[in-house]
Amino acid sequence: MDSEPQFFDQPGGYVGQPLVRVDGREKVTGKAKYSAEFPLPGLTYGVLATSPIAKGKIQRIDTSAAAREPGVIAVLTHQNLPKLAKTPNDPQGKKDIGAPMGFLPLTSDEIFYAAQPVAIVVADTLDHALHAATLVKVTYQAAQPIASFLDPKAELFDPQKVQDGKQDGHTRRGDAKGALASSAIQLTATYNHPVYNHNPMEPGSTTAHWEAPDRLTVYESTQGVTRTQSALTAMLGIPREQIRVVTKYLGGGFGCKGSCWPHTILTIQAAKAVNRPVQLMLTRKQQFTSMGHREDQTQTVQLGATADGKITSIVHTKTSTTSPWDNYAESNSKILDMLYATPNFEATYQLARANVMTSTFMRAPGEAPGSFAIECSMDDLAYRIGVDPIEIRLRNHADHDYSTNKPWSSKSLKQCYARGAELFGWSKRNPRPGVTRDGRYLVGMGMASASYPVHNSQGTARARLYADGHAVVQSGATDLGTGTYTVITQVAADALGLPPEKIRFELGDTNLPTAPNSGGSVAAGTVSSSVYMAAQDVWQKLIKVAVVDKKSPLFKAKPEDVTVEKGRLQLKKDPSKGERFADLMKRAEMTDVEGMGQGKYGSGYETGRSGSPAGPNNNTDTAGEHSMHSFGAHFCEVRVDMDLGTIRVSKWVSVMGAGRILNAQTARSQIIGGAIFGIGSALMEETIRDPHFSRYTNADLANYHVPVNADIPDMTVEFVEENDPFINAMGVKGIGEISMVGVAAAVANAVYHATGKRLRDLPLTPDKVM
Ligand code: MOS
């Protein structure tokens, strides 16, 4: 095969086309089955009863009233739930399980956080279970909880390392404090962030079915069937092969479905106890207290610069709330370290334990809040020296990654600024803040840079090509709703030379070849390259058949001289010599041929320019030579009503350089969705934790505000064409998270431009504007 991927540059290829979602019809007709929609024979319904106190002990638990209710099958508490082989509470347990939290409820009488489950009620109907759960009587010995790092009783500590599953800890390059002290310009700003909750339309849900005492199938609302299977293997102590995790459809996740949370294993143990399948779907209220959240945090950025606005130093600190057991903090500093040409850099984290569950990754973990801090501070710098916000960013453009001292694999940030400014009409902007009016509204225009890393990841896929011209392609990935089914169908169509309707792509099942979590923006890149490689394996097998087949035009050709073009095997040097795979297979009496592929993605597996992305093992000679990131720019116009304090986003443009775009339509939707997610974080989303009781006071969608259509203008999205040969066989960087990076800053920068008021406490609610 050629050393470069060759299918995707063909005119008429399906990759990149705005193919309508292949699962759209299933979804809108209600045929798509989500994890709480499997009506198994004998199905029962589980409901969690939870603690109103955030700290203390269960003194007495009386389940008799609940148990007497009609239809109730069992009421399970820490006293009678079947024991697990291992829990996150055990030494090493959290690590062995890969649990997001070092504590599992219903293992003791201790209460550590509000809404901690204290019982699981199983009944014949959901109504019966919901009602009975209210009848579980618990007497608590309550203690005074700590609600956050702001609590005067909270003790701040240096965690040395914070956990986001990938990295990290303190960072130090050069002499940041020294350089800051001697800088002509020194800016210090503090940014405050509330708790945010993931609110996927589909709350966390589990249907647990023990088919035999040691054989389990779980329909689970998870971003990763394999990671869930691994966690269950460790906790249940039964072999991996005997646990099947299925996730055919997901109604969103945003990171909260990236790990195996307590309700899943509690449902499985309840199913064991009642010896019937149990289905549990978190209530919307429980969604706020069962699958993590983005932690409340404060960040301070000290920025040193020369008189003409060149950054000399950044000193960044973050303080945030964590749980009684874990040292989790999303690592905000990474983006401050790499986004601009910063010769000196230092970042430190502080944590405080409080009576909350452990926070977790939420769309663009670290980059989302980190970008708010750096991108608002960059605007401060622009105004301080009187240059345009784009110009200050160009002056500090990083031609290589200062955090690793490596060249970029590709970077189109300057094109994103230029194209975004053009689409937005940035040149019409009056540089002076607080002076542009439209009737009663102050009008402001702001922008911000965006970036997200390409994380290392690998996965596998199987492709089975049939002589009759259809194919079944499989990879145990998940589709958050963002379009995995669709984009991988397009990749398979091009790679196998078939129209998309002749491809069936199956995902979301641990019985399929292993794929990584749909998280960290890795799914599209990893799964597309896995499928591409699986198709190459198919062709290699067919080429071997062709060259020994006397009736083939390719008889006696050397396999390496044969290539495949849209399903036709042909000589590289003389494409007229060749045949369609179907002709070859029929003559050889093959009904089908199967290929396996392993897709590797990220700098740890990078493919050199002269490397061989088409081989089963990517060239690792150049591994780690490049820093891999997507980049982009968001542009925002706001209209601010100073009498009412309301901010309305009236125009939006996002331009992204993110490698190969697999589907113009789903990619556009993905960026729009992420930008709306970011606008929500900027203007309205906030989970309020009562400072005395450490309880959430607005755990529902009536009081936790997310943007609706009326809050959002028409949005313009464009992608800069980018051909990155180092990422993987497909050159896909992934767009799940970059869509929301920098968004809140673009909004806040527009508000500053409109009003002359710099708001640094999210969300920017009317009380802060007036
Ligand atoms: Mo995403 S927050 O990496 O699931």
From TrEMBL:
Residues 29-144 form the Aldehyde oxidase/xanthine dehydrogenase a/b hammerhead domain. It comes from the Bacteria. SUPFAM superfamilies: CO dehydrogenase molybdoprotein N-domain-like, Molybdenum cofactor-binding domain. Keywords: Molybdenum, Oxidoreductase. InterPro entries: Ald_Oxase/Xan_DH_a/b, Ald_Oxase/Xan_DH_a/b_sf, Ald_Oxase/xanthine_DH-like, AldOxase/xan_DH_MoCoBD1, AldOxase/xan_DH_MoCoBD2, AldOxase/xan_DH_Mopterin-bd_sf. The keyword Cell membrane does not apply. SMART domains: Ald_Xan_dh_C. The keyword Oxidoreductase applies. Residues 595-626 are annotated as: Disordered. This is Xanthine dehydrogenase family protein molybdopterin-binding subunit. It comes from Hymenobacter ginsengisoli. The lineage of its organism: Bacteria, Pseudomonadati, Bacteroidota, Cytophagia, Cytophagales.
